[in-house]
Design goal:
By secondary structure, the protein is mainly α. The chain has 18 helices and three strands.
Length: 634
């Protein structure tokens, strides 16, 4: 139904904007096209006050002005319908346009204008309708939201969408970070597992190496090696003992120096004390006892510190000797076992490589078997798929053929039905004309006692042969301003009969047949006075129309200049324009060459005067298109 409505709006009504079924609700949402549609049918006199905007105030103005017109046509229209149209609800505009099409067709058949329809409406319903219109406007104002609210809602939706996008982005980034962390943890776990595996492997290798070393070390070392090792140990011990003795001696010297320095410092205060004792009238024995006690404690603490230091040095020496002993034993074991370990490592590596080769060969054989099975399975699947596609294509072809047969049969039946309807309608029309003609003749003979004038019978025959109804369909006296279809048929009947009468008058047939005594005589000459009278009467009945004036071309020609670089296509473009618009092209190079050639050939120019009347005739002969003169500038 949307296609039919759009075809009616675009082809018959011819709105200012072409509408399509897909955008029908959007185009009519502001009510402007509805007002234009009613204005084209002379029902909306306030159409210049309509607005093409899509804001709330424009929609409210348009739909407030549309409601009285819809109620005048009898179309169901209230605030709910207006709200559905403004909110672009699917199907609301199509339903309203269909009702409006039916109402406009009824109005067209009745031949009434909008003013006539308003005057014919009773006074009480008109007042009631005005009250309903006021209520409708108030309710529509409450239903239509303000433009500021819509703008605020649009802005809030915009920021809401931005917030959602940012939230999605943050969630995506958070999810990616979580995935990265999980991936790093997984990689760390794999690395830890790999390290554990490598540690276990190294531990096993170390255990194997230790076992091999234990097996390879001889129980009794040679005498030469043991003596050399013991001699070296003795030398190392003597050297270390000498170093320790030297360090102790140096440490004791330092302590003695400190003691001497302290004793020298203590003598000076002693002298001062003696002087103080001499000066003082009493003795300070307690103070001296305290000093002696403190000196004894210092010496005792110093001895304890020396003992602890020596003990620590002895422990360090013992640990250092044990470490050196272990290091020497490890170096000896490594030197003794280096050759055997290399051989064992090479053997282990060879066994490992052989085992890997065996595993690779078995994996390759197993993979080849899988590939073979996969190829056979794929080949079988392809065969099954081709067979299924062939069956499906066959079924589709049969269904398509059946559908085409059904369509052909339906089209054949429709064509036969249309042909039957056409022939039936033609025969029914002819039969109706025959019945009308026979009834008309019967009625007239009943009234005139079987006497029908020849003129009336000839007119009836002419109407019958031309396929026009014999009975009067509508009255055309006096001539109306707007003709209906029945009045147009009556007007065409009158025109046909008038033309036949005029032809009979010109050919002297029918009623205008000359008597027998005048048939042999020549026709009377042309009467100029009667022709003048007839011409005056014809001009008064049908005044001549004003001739259509063709637009005059201005006295000057419109000139233009085309500029461009060399070899940019100016001449080609001007040739196309010359063929399309019949313009005159003036090229500077061509004009200069023609002038030089005319000078060489001694050509002269003769001035020919042109009259004003000839100039006007030439201007009338020029077509209405604008004459352009282009100069080509290189």
């Amino acid at each position: 139904m949307s296609d039919i409505v759009c075809k009616w709006l675009n082809q018959e009504v011819k709105l200012s904007r072409t509408v399509s079924p897909k955008a029908l609700e959007k185009d009519f949402s502001n009510g402007f096209l509805l007002g234009e549609l009613l204005h084209k049918h002379e029902l909306q006199d306030d159409f210049p006050q309509f607005s093409e905007g899509r804001v709330s105030n424009a929609k409210l103005n348009n739909f407030s002005r549309l409601e009285p017109t819809f109620q005048l046509l009898g179309v169901q229209f209230d605030q709910n319908v207006a709200q559905n149209i403004m909110t672009e609800k699917h199907g609301s505009v199509t339903k309203l346009l269909y009702q409006l099409y039916i109402a406009l067709q009824k109005k067209k058949k009745s031949g009434l204008t909008g003013v006539a329809m308003e005057t014919m409406r009773p006074l009480a319903p008109a007042k009631l309708q005005n009250m309903k219109s006021e209520i409708y406007r108030e309710r529509l104002k409450n239903l239509v939201p303000r433009q500021t609210d819509l703008n605020l809602e649009r802005v809030s939706e915009k920021f809401q969408t931005k917030f959602k996008e940012m939230e999605e982005k943050t969630n995506r980034v958070h999810f990616e970070n979580i995935q990265k962390i999980q991936k790093l943890k997984e990689e760390q776990r794999l690395q830890d597992l790999e390290k554990q595996r490598l540690g276990r492997r190294r531990q096993h290798e170390m255990m194997a190496r230790i076992q091999a070393a234990i097996l390879q070390i001889p129980k009794v070392l040679p005498n030469r090696t043991l003596k050399a090792i013991e001699r070296q140990k003795m030398l190392m011990k003597k050297k270390e003992a000498e170093d320790v003795v030297n360090e102790i001696k140096s440490f004791e010297l330092l302590i003695k120096k400190e003691m001497e320095a302290k004793s020298s410092e203590s003598k000076a205060p002693a002298a001062a004390q003696t002087t103080a004792l001499l000066l003082s009238t009493y003795s300070d024995e307690e103070y001296m006892k305290k000093i002696q006690k403190r000196l004894e404690e210092d010496t005792l603490a110093r001895e304890q510190r020396e003992k602890r230091r020596r003990k620590l040095l002895m422990h360090q020496l013992i640990a250092h000797e044990a470490q050196e002993e272990a290091y020497r034993e490890e170096q000896l074991i490594n030197r003794l076992m280096r050759q055997s370990q290399q051989e064992r490592r090479i053997a282990v590596q060879l066994m490992h490589v052989r085992h890997e080769k065996e595993v690779l060969w078995q994996n390759r054989v197993f993979r080849e078997k899988q590939y073979e099975e996969r190829r056979l399975k794929d080949f079988q699947d392809a065969l099954d798929r081709e067979a299924a596609l062939a069956r499906q294509a066959k079924l589709e072809y049969e269904e398509q053929a059946q559908k085409e047969i059904e369509i052909h049969e339906r089209i054949t039946a429709e064509r036969a039905q249309a042909r039957y309807k056409k022939h039936y309608s033609m025969c029914a029309e002819i039969l109706d004309h025959i019945i009308d003609f026979s009834t008309k003749v019967a009625e007239y003979r009943e009234l005139t006692q079987n006497l029908i004038p020849v003129k009336i019978m000839r007119d009836w025959k002419e109407l019958f042969f031309s396929g026009k109804p014999i009975y009067e369909q509508a009255s055309i006296d006096p001539l109306p301003t707007h003709f209906t279809s029945d009045q147009l048929v009556e007007l065409s009947k009158r025109t046909l009969l008038d033309d036949n009468d005029y032809e009979e008058y010109k050919t002297f047939t029918g009623e205008w047949t000359l008597p027998e005594e005048m048939s042999e005589s020549a026709l009377p000459p042309n009467n100029n006075i009667l022709g003048h009278v007839l011409r005056v009467v014809h001009e008064k009945v049908q005044p001549p129309r004003a001739p259509i004036l063709t637009p005059q071309i201005p006295s000057f020609s419109i000139k233009g200049c085309m500029l461009g670089k060399t070899c940019s296509g100016k001449t080609s473009c001007l040739k196309i324009l010359e063929e399309a618009f019949h313009i005159e092209i003036l090229s500077i190079d061509k004009l200069v060459q023609e002038a030089i050639q005319a000078f060489l050939m001694n050509e002269t120019v003769a001035e020919v005067p042109v009259d004003m009347q000839e100039q006007e005739e030439t201007e009338k002969e020029i077509p209405a298109s604008i004459i352009l003169t282009f100069f080509v500038h290189i």
